[in-house]
Write a structure and sequence with these properties.
Length: 367
Amino acid sequence: MLATGLEGVVAAETAIATVGQESLGLRYRGYSVVDLAEGASFEEVAYLLVHGELPGRQALEAYRERLAALRPLPEALYAILRLLPADAHPMDVLRTGCSALGTLEPEGAGRDQYAIADRLVAALPTMLLAWHHAGRSWVPHAEPSGLAHSFLLALHEREPDPLSVRMLDASLILYAEHELNASTFAARVTTSTLSDFYSAVCSAIGALRGPLHGGANEEAMRLIERFPDPDSAERGISEMLRCRERIMGFGHRIYKHGDPRSPLMKSWSHRLAEASGDRVLFPVSERIEALMWREKGLHTNLDFYSASAYRLAGIPTPLFTPLFVLSRITGWAAHIIEQRAHNRLIRPSAAYVGPEPRAFVPIEQRG
Ligand code: CMC
């Protein structure tokens, strides 16, 4: 039978994450994602995914220092970023930046896959922020609290509030890895042809960009902010459902009984809403959640409450999906490395539904 969208197809073995298996829940290399999001930093999780084990104190410190040293970009890359249109989508900027870095610092020539993984974890945030600040070089300060802190500091050019930093750190952990999602699968397909690391990451960024995958967090935000209060949200969403429109941030291919990451993000969104005195975003989001459950039996996925949490932390909507990239690069890197270790070309087949065999007619006789 045809598995449209490859639903239900087991296409690889992995030691990186378990997703949707009843007794295990979502785990990164055996660790519960809830424990990681509540107790670890993004850098610990990045190290776990890319290098296989949680770091000890010294290894973590060395890793943070290595990432800080790897953040600045080659001058040629800043120049390329400055040439991109100001209204380009930052996902296109990251895809282009990743590709350009692959020409400036190609794989091989003394650079192994772990070095490239660390370089991309460090350099993708710089590309995003440099482009956001109109091509200005971003040289980060010492990074006592990691990417979440330095990202918000560089974005707003002032010390961020600790609640926003903790929310972003937890969100980066929740976004870091998710088994054979579309972008990771794209990375593994490209890797399976023995292509280079950067090409695999560019494939993944392109796949993540779409609204059925990572782009859903931006679309969810655009939807939520259309409504000034919960009652108009109820009317607006009901009308959209009547017109059979898709509501971004709801539903999941694997999780049919709820996304285990979603309650964590909801609680961050709630905390930020309370702290900022928000009376619209969170109540509107909750009303949409209740309506979607009542009318469609659909749960929120991670992207839905990420939207209001990011907005309440002052992050502009076009940076939402790029933030997903800055996190998921760790999962992609782990999968590229794993695919290479047990590689076989990924090349499925298709059921042919085209025309019956027919005779070729030369152009002179075709009329
Ligand atoms: N809004 C309205 N209807 C929906 C939605 C939704 N968000 N999601 C699924 N449905 C309906 C869909 O219309 C279909 O109904 P029918 O059978 O009457 O045509 C039914 O549910 C099954 O949908 P499907 O597209 O076949 O299911 P899937 O397993 O292929 O879809 C999904 C998974 C994530 C693509 C889908 O739920 C969706 O489009 N959600 C909105 C986009 C979104 O939030 N994506 C983020 C995914 S999770 C995190 C991430 O990767 O970024």
